[in-house]
Amino acid sequence: MMIKKNILRFSCLFILFTSYAFATVVKIGAYEFPPFVTWVSGKPNGVLVKLSKHLNETQKKYSFELIETSSNRRYDDMKNKYYDIIFFENIQWGWLKYPVQASKVFLVGGEVFITKILDNKNQTYFNDLKNKTIRGILGYHYGFANFLTDPLTLKKWNIELTNSHEGNIVAVLEGRSDLAIVTKEYLDIYLKKNSEAKKNLLVSNKMDQMYHHTVLIREGSPISVSEINGLLDNIKKDQSLKNILDYK
Fold it and tell me: Which domains does the chain have, with CATH numbers?
């Protein structure tokens, strides 16, 4: 009887091991895009980490792994097959000339402007961006700049591009920049943690752009668009996507 139990236990462990061992690896490109992705000392954090973990736990055909890239480098990295898919993307963000396909939209968000509250500023302050200094993120696409990313071209909008979302907010608070454009989802988290900043910032009611987040899949990827759509459908139906996105 004991021998049968040991055999059964071994069989279960073997099946579990082989299901992971023979899973096809799918590499997910991940660049600094809080709250969806942040990198600290070479380790990823944020929504995408939870999402990839959930996908690995709920199916065994694929093993999803995060691969670090950057907002500027992500195009060439995808082209060179450094990774296979990328979440929280839109094909309009510079991808049209690349051999990629987009999944269905699975999340909507956006970007807003912020400025320091001074001299009775109100929402009209955001109507005219001329002669105002603006902080943005290197490699990001902004609606007011016609979604261009070239730093030289962007100079006519008086934009200073950095790699720090928090740094851009602080620059506005300290008066080193008139404006910053920030992902609303990240700003909500920042203001919740920094109550004083909330008292001193005016946030635009109008978004610079609305995000329509999709997954982009490179040509020759081990996973297809239809399979990605199926996974997105599953995590929407069981409410797990909603729980994962509860980053506030």
Answer: 24-107+211-244 (3.40.190.10), 109-209 (3.40.190.10)
